[in-house]
Amino acid sequence: MTKVVYYLLYAVSTLPFRVLYALSDMLMPLLYYIIRYRRSIVRRNLTSAFPEKSMKEIKTIEKKFYHWFCDYFLEAIKLMSISDRELNRRFHVKNPEVHEAWFLKGRNTAGFLGHYCNWEWLSRVGKDMNPERRVCLIYDPLHSKAINYAFLRLRSYPPTGVPTPKRDILRQLVTWRREGRMSLSGYIADQAPKWTNIHLWLPFLNHPATPVFTGAERISRKMNDAVYYVKMTRPRRGCYDVEYVLLSDDPASLPEGELTRRFFRMLEQSVREAPQYYLWTHNRWKRTKEEFDRRFEIVKGKVVEKKKL
């Protein structure tokens, strides 16, 4: 079943972009008007993030988001068969040389990114790098074995792009260091953590206390990486631009949490510039600071549930 799903998706990926976007245009009203996929969550997220906008403006962003969301899925599938020539025409990295400059100094780099624009296409940033370098594409395995297998294949970009489960990050980075291979690690750093993984609350998109992951910061500090924000934009349908914006070249010198704060400030700026390209279907504000303070406490750096009296 796993390979059947993969080959079906691969067959879809061979379709020209114009056909894929025609399918996307047909899929959007089905998803938005009939299935109403997570409509209530998207509406709640948008209205709380942009209280200054009218309901007409919110609905406009909402519909643009669902159009992009359908595009995102088909664009991701397209990675299974896209040629390097087509990829170079549609996917432009403005300053790939910043990483090589650090590699020549013996320093690895890290890229912090959000669920913004088509983050799956970022698995191809290795196209502009020395083939001896590695891009550690960190991912959380999906529950569906069939979909996980398909996405693992589309995220792979040999020899540079190596998908790595998040539990194996440090092992992979240490292995490459021992082999003398320089690497760029990519972290999707805006995921909503579980209760026991919450160590930091930040203001984000009009929410004064948003729970955030700090794992990317902790690893970057430990590895002494030069850290960049991966700024992604979509100048037109089917095309993406990437620019690396330095967050810190000395993360260990910063106060704990500062690197994550800088990332979220940059991400919010991107979202406010073009909100339709953010993943609004995630219920990222379902956990509140009030409930956390009521139920949990931090003991010796670990989040533990309070004992009931």
Quick recap:
43% of the residues lie in helices and 21% in strands.
- Provide the gyration radius in Å: 20 Å
Order of adjacent strands in the largest pleated sheet: 1-9-8-2-5-3-4
Estimate the global geometry from the Cα principal axes.
globular
N/C terminus separation: 50 Å
Poorly predicted spans:
none
Description:
The structure is a single chain. A seven-stranded mixed beta sheet has the order 1-9-8-2-5-3-4. A two-stranded antiparallel sheet has the order 6-7. The chain has helices at residues 2-13, 17-34, 39-49, 55-78, 84-90, 97-103, 145-155, 169-179, 215-223, 258-273, 289-295, and strands at 91-93, 109-113, 134-139, 161-165, 183-188, 200-204, 207-212, 226-236, 239-248, 296-299, 302-305. 33% of the residues are buried. Helix 1 (2-13) packs across helix 4 and helix 2 crosses helix 4 (55-78). It contains eleven helices and eleven strands. It has 309 residues and is of the alpha/beta class. The radius of gyration is 20 Å and the shape is globular. The longest helix has 24 residues, at 55-78. The termini are far apart. The model has no long low-confidence stretch (mean pLDDT 94).
Name the descriptors.
two-stranded antiparallel sheet; alpha/beta; 309 residues; globular; 43% helix; seven-stranded mixed beta sheet
Topology (SSEs and partners):
Blueprint lengths: L1 H12 L3 H18 L4 H11 L5 H24 L5 H7 E3 L3 H7 L5 E5 L20 E6 L5 H11 L5 E5 L3 H11 L3 E6 L11 E5 L2 E6 L2 H9 L2 E11 L2 E10 L9 H16 L15 H7 E4 L2 E4 L4
Parallel strand pairs: 1-9, 2-5, 2-8, 3-4, 3-5
Antiparallel strand pairs: 6-7, 8-9, 10-11
Helix pairs in contact: 1-4, 1-7, 2-4, 3-4
